[in-house]
Each structure stands twice: as structure tokens, then as C-alpha cells.
């Protein structure tokens, strides 16, 4: 038999446990989601429910029944948190070939996730993230470096797009115009042929050819550091790029080039070929798998080690503004200046799209005034 109280009812069940119920503001009967071992526990539950009803009335807010609260809790437990989904996304992510992320790429993503995304979204259900949340988060990154800001936004967009594909959310909330494009504040002034010669002259003799190849053949550092004797086609005077090396924590990792377009044959300019020939003869051990530019332990030379030599050489050339990657930029710009088309630049540099190649053609347009002046010399006979 139920015991009536000032608020609610308590009934002892045949099992000896106690059941608590009450009539709510909606005039419906509501019962505790569990039964209680002792009567006092049922009393405490009813007092708690009475207080919730009184508080809702005092604050003039809708009252939520215990059943509705229980259902909301159940739904929340079933909802996928952004942090859990992002961790699974990193593990299961595949490139266009169906291959897992490369070690360096994954490490980069993990760092961006930990530093910029997790603090704000890790504990938030993925279907609860709104456009307003994304805008507020992005505005809070205004002090972060532009490139980091762009990478963080791009990673969030990629993760949420995957959530759409998996039907976890109806639409991605990541839509901020222009946020996916980084503004490059640093303007690169390409090295001149004279600059390149001075820089090469001030490098260790075994690394002089590295400057010439990086610049005149426009190679990425990972491509250059993985070059082996077998990659130099001495008959056609070409570099056959089939691999690249990355340097994630834990050691060097050799894999395919950055993109499918990175697999290419690059013609070596005639004035560079003697430098390559001499380097092969004097500094590369016999054997097809010997590295062209090994480190002290005969393994891959880390970028930081090469930069140590390069920083001194660029200073000697009065070009302390140059970075190693600017040698590739220099080679691309020089190729554009001698008339390489967008498609030719794209193929030579191993770009997947023409967008980056067009940037070098734009840089080459800066010489238009020099061209105009040379045209006038034809009239002057000079």
C-alpha cells in the first residue's frame, strides 16, 4: 500500500524495496527511475523533485520531468564527442590512394588538434557544434600565426565534413569566408644566379651540388635528401624522383613524394650537369642506393643540419632573408622567367594543381619593365 505524504507517494514493493512517485505540474504521475533499498532514500528523492518544481516556478522556467531528464542524459551519453571522433578520424583517415596518413602529416594534425581544436571542442558533442561556436572559436585565434590559424580551420573543416559523410550531422557548421586561405606576409625575393654561386661556394664542398640541384631543379628538401645514385639518369641527364623522406619524431621515414604529381623526371640544366657529375665522382660512394647528400652517419641529413650550413653561406652572399625552401622558389621563378608555361611549371615542380605554378609566373611578371627596356635597346642599337 502506498504511503501518502505532503508531496508524493512511497510504496513498499513485494521485493522489500521502495518505489517513489509524485504528481507533477503537468498532472501526470512520475516515478523514480530506480527503486530504493531504504525508505529514507526515497524520501530524499521526493524532496529533490519538489525542490526542482519550486525552483522552476520561482524562476518562471519550464519544469522538466524526471523521465525527460533521464532521456536527455541517455541521449547525451550516446552522442559522439568531437574529441573522440577527431581521434578516430586521425586513425582511419586515408588519402586518395586509400593509404593511411604519413607519419609527419599525422603528427602535424595531432599537434594542431591538441593546441587549437581540443581545448574548445573536445568535450562537446559533435552535433552540438554550431556556426556561432565556430566563429567565436576562430575569432579567439586572432593572435595565432596566420598559417597555424589556417591549418586549424582547415583541419576542423575536414573533420566536420567527414562527420557529414557519416551522417553524424546534417551539415557542417564550418563556414567562414576566407578562413581557409592563409595570407602570406613574407614576400620572397628569389636569389640571383650570382647569389646562388656565392652560397654554393660557402657551403662544405660535399654539399655545394645540393644548392645547385635544389635551386636549378626546384626540388623540395625531402626529395633532395632522399636522392640516391640510381636516381640520376646519366644518359638523359635527368633526376628521377620516385621517393621523398620526412623527419617525424622517431627518425627519418622514406615514402612516395608529397603527391602523385611529385613522381616525375626533372631535366638537369646543362650548366648544372658538370656540377652533378663531379659530385657523383668525388662525394658519392659506389652502389645504386648510396645517398647523394648523406649525414655524418651516412643516413639522411636532417633539414636542421643542412640549415646550419646554409645559414652561414647565405650570410656570405648578403642574403640572410633566404630560407632553404626559397631555393625551390628561386628555381621555379627562373623557369617562369625563361618562358615556362603553367603546365610546364606544374610538371617540373610536381604540383597537383596549377594554382601554385601560376604564382611563379606572376612573380616573373615583375621583370616586365626590364623586358621593355631591352626592347628599346633594339631601336637604339645598343
How is the secondary structure organized here?
Layout: E1 2-4, E2 9-12, E3 18-23, E4 29-31, H1 39-59, H2 66-78, H3 82-92, H4 103-121, H5 131-139, H6 146-165, H7 193-201, H8 208-216, H9 221-225, E5 232-233, E6 238-241, E7 244-246, E8 253-255, E9 264-267, H10 273-283, H11 303-316, H12 325-337, H13 342-349, H14 355-364, H15 368-380
Antiparallel strand pairs: 1-2, 2-3, 3-4, 5-6, 6-9, 7-8
Helix pairs in contact: 3-4, 4-6, 7-8, 7-11, 8-12, 12-14, 13-14
Describe this protein's structure.
- α7 runs antiparallel to α8, α7 packs across α11 and α13 packs across α14.
- The chain has a 4-stranded antiparallel beta sheet with strand order 1-2-3-4, with helices on one face. The protein has a 3-stranded antiparallel beta sheet with strand order 5-6-9. The protein has a two-stranded antiparallel sheet with strand order 7-8.
- The chain folds into 3 domains: 75 residues; 84 residues, DNA polymerase, domain 1; 178 residues, Intergrase catalytic core (hpI Integrase, Chain A).
- The longest helix has 21 residues.
- It has 15 helices and 9 strands.
- β3 and β4 form a beta hairpin.
- The mean pLDDT is 88.
- With 382 residues, it is an alpha+beta fold.
- The protein is 48% helix and 8% strand.
Amino acid at each position: 500500500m502506498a504511503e501518502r505524504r505532503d508531496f508524493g507517494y512511497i510504496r513498499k514493493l513485494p521485493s522489500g524495496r521502495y518505489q517513489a512517485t509524485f504528481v507533477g505540474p503537468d498532472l501526470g504521475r512520475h516515478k523514480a527511475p530506480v527503486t530504493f533499498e531504504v525508505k529514507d532514500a526515497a524520501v530524499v528523492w521526493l524532496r529533490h523533485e519538489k525542490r526542482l518544481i519550486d525552483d522552476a516556478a520561482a524562476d518562471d522556467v519550464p519544469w522538466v520531468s524526471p523521465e525527460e531528464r533521464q532521456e536527455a542524459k541517455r541521449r547525451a551519453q550516446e552522442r559522439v564527442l568531437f574529441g573522440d571522433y577527431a581521434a578516430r578520424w586521425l586513425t582511419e583517415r586515408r588519402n586518395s590512394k586509400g593509404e593511411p596518413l604519413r607519419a609527419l602529416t599525422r603528427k602535424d594534425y595531432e599537434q594542431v588538434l591538441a593546441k587549437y581544436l581540443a581545448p574548445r571542442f573536445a568535450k562537446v558533442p559533435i552535433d552540438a557544434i554550431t556556426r556561432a561556436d565556430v566563429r567565436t572559436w576562430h575569432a579567439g585565434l586572432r593572435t595565432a600565426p596566420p598559417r597555424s590559424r589556417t591549418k586549424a580551420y582547415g583541419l576542423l573543416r575536414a573533420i566536420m565534413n567527414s562527420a557529414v559523410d557519416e551522417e553524424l550531422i546534417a551539415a557542417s557548421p564550418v563556414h567562414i569566408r576566407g578562413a581557409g586561405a592563409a595570407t602570406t606576409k613574407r614576400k620572397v625575393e628569389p636569389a640571383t644566379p650570382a647569389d646562388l654561386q656565392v652560397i654554393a661556394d660557402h657551403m662544405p664542398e660535399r654539399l655545394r651540388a645540393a644548392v645547385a640541384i635544389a635551386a636549378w631543379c626546384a626540388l623540395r628538401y625531402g626529395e633532395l635528401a632522399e636522392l640516391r645514385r640510381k636516381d640520376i639518369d646519366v644518359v638523359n641527364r635527368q633526376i628521377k624522383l620516385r621517393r621523398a623522406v620526412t623527419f617525424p619524431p622517431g627518425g627519418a621515414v622514406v615514402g612516395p613524394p608529397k603527391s602523385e604529381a611529385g613522381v616525375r623526371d626533372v631535366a638537369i640544366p646543362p650548366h648544372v650537369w658538370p656540377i652533378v657529375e663531379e659530385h657523383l665522382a668525388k662525394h658519392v660512394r659506389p652502389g645504386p642506393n648510396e645517398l647523394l647528400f648523406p649525414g655524418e652517419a651516412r643516413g639522411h641529413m636532417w633539414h636542421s643540419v643542412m640549415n646550419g650550413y646554409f645559414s652561414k653561406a647565405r650570410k656570405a652572399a648578403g642574403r640572410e632573408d633566404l630560407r632553404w625552401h626559397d631555393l625551390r622558389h628561386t628555381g621555379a621563378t627562373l623557369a617562369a622567367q625563361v618562358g615556362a608555361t603553367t603546365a610546364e611549371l606544374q610538371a617540373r615542380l610536381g604540383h597537383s594543381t596549377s594554382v601554385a605554378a601560376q604564382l611563379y609566373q606572376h612573380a616573373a611578371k615583375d621583370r616586365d619593365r626590364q623586358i621593355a627596356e631591352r626592347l628599346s635597346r633594339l631601336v637604339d642599337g645598343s
